[in-house]
Specification:
Blueprint lengths: L15 H5 L4 E7 L4 H11 L13 E6 L2 E2 L5 E2 L4 H10 L21 H7 L3 E9 L3 H7 L29 H7 L4 E5 L1 H4 L13 H7 L3 E3 L2 H6 L6 E4 L15 E2 L21 H19 L5 E7 L1 H7 L3 H24 L3 E7 L5 E4 L8 E6 L5 E6 L15 E6 L8 E4 H12 L3
Helix pairs in contact: 2-12, 3-5, 3-13, 6-8, 10-12, 11-12
Length: about 425
């Protein structure tokens, strides 16, 4: 069996058994904004230039293209997280800011999570963003604009409102979908009151409890939940605070710095992404066994603030979130080692702005200098946008890597939409 990129161009090396194998479980891990530069920065800082992260050890590695489209179908070469997540969630391109709906007719598209539920699989979503943010929303909801996260946020989605016969906000749809495990931030969206439709007068959180959700807000609560009943973990009002901190990049650079690996502004009791992933797998595995019939689970895990810290030109925050994401990859691979009928895929939704540049370079934008764990200096440059609203995405292809049934499908250069086919094929979904 080929490993790494050695398998590219050699499809005959993939056994017939591997090519036709069906997965019982799929764990999809998405590093938001985690392009090759972001991976390299985290590798250099934490394990050294010659070291390897857990995500580097997945045996099948390729790359995929990430462009979105305009309403006219022409390429939009730089995607946002909504359109990119829609691509692998549904197998279709869409316009930026849209969640799992067509680019022209604004029609809802079936998602991989919906297909998994229809086939009797347990399902879960874990994120360090709000649970209503673009990447988790794309597998659970359908709205015209990603901003329509709660009942009070529907200004850009008039046709999706309950008053117009639509499904409501992302929060309402996510709860109504009755996903087995939901873990992340965004409590503010679920605290909003529903103002339209038969459920008006109650908050989204109240409706979640009525639907049987066990609602938890910290690590202790997550550890105490009962398997078999749906779980809604809301660990922050908005995005979950990052694990690391440091001095952001600045015009003219910064003094050499070591990152602070325990963010003093991160409240105690918030479970790490690693802990959330481990608990989600435990709960989904238990739920799948209760379901019987040989069905497994589908789980999506997002390391969201790799992107958000990139926007802020904050290399320490960014590296810390990449390292946290990598530990979640480790958890997924450990489970797969004991359950080889599990497909593990790790990828990104788009590239971003950080670049490693020579120490002698004088970047035109913002830059920072880090002292790595190897004791060497590393200069990081951010120069994709000069405005106050922060750095921008890039339109590059990004890494996709996998192990398990159908993992060979990620080899070579593919497109985000083909990941949907890989997941659907691996799970044997119609």
């Amino acid at each position: 069996m080929p490993t790494g990129t050695a398998g590219r161009g050699a499809p005959g090396a993939v056994s017939a058994a591997a090519a036709t194998a069906t997965a019982r479980n799929v764990i999809l891990l998405v590093g938001d904004g985690m392009g090759d530069s972001e991976i390299t920065l985290a590798r250099n800082y934490t394990v050294g230039a010659g070291g390897r992260l857990h995500m580097d050890r997945l045996p099948m590695t390729g790359s995929y293209t990430t462009y979105s489209v305009g309403k006219d179908g022409k390429p939009d070469y730089v995607t946002d997280s909504a359109a990119s997540a829609t691509a692998w969630a549904t197998g279709h391109k869409t316009v930026n800011d849209r969640i799992s709906k067509t680019p022209d007719t604004d029609r809802a598209l079936p998602t991989i999570l919906e297909l998994a539920q229809r086939d009797g699989l347990a399902t879960g979503s874990v994120t360090t963003a709000e649970l209503t943010d673009a990447t988790p929303a794309a597998i659970a909801a359908h709205v015209t604009d990603r901003s329509c996260q709660g009942p009070a946020d529907m200004a850009r989605c008039p046709r999706d409102t309950r008053a117009e016969g639509g499904p409501g906000s992302i929060a309402e749809q996510t709860v109504a979908r009755r996903i087995d495990v939901l873990l992340g931030g965004g409590r503010q969206r679920f605290d909003q009151t529903i103002t339209q439709g038969p459920e008006r007068g109650a908050t989204v959180l109240q409706r979640a409890r009525e639907r049987g959700y066990q609602v938890v807000t910290d690590a202790a609560g997550l550890g105490a939940v009962r398997p078999g009943q749906p779980v809604l973990g809301l660990f922050a009002p908005e995005t979950v605070p990052v694990e690391w901190t440091g001095t952001p990049a600045a015009a003219g650079g910064t003094a050499p710095q070591r990152c602070v690996t325990a963010n003093p502004e991160r409240p105690a009791g918030i479970p790490t992404l690693e802990a959330q992933t481990r608990r989600a797998i435990e709960l989904l595995d238990a739920k799948a066994r209760q379901n019987g019939r040989g069905k497994g689970f589908f789980l999506q895990v997002e390391g969201a603030s790799i992107d958000k810290q990139n926007h802020d030109a904050d290399p320490c925050g960014q590296i810390g979130e990449t390292a946290a994401f990598d530990r979640a990859v480790k958890v997924a691979r450990e489970y797969a080692a004991q359950h080889p009928d599990t497909l593990v895929v790790t990828t990104a939704d788009h590239g971003h702005s950080s670049q490693i540049v020579p120490m002698a370079a004088r970047p035109a934008g913002l830059s920072a200098t880090l002292v790595t764990d190897e004791g060497a200096l590393m200069k990081v440059s951010y120069a994709t946008h000069a405005g106050e609203e922060g750095q921008e995405h890039s339109g590059v292809q990004v890494r996709i890597a996998a192990q398990g049934p159908q993992a060979h499908r990620v080899l070579g250069t593919t497109d985000q939409t083909e990941l949907f086919t890989t997941l659907r094929t691996a799970l044997g979904l119609r």
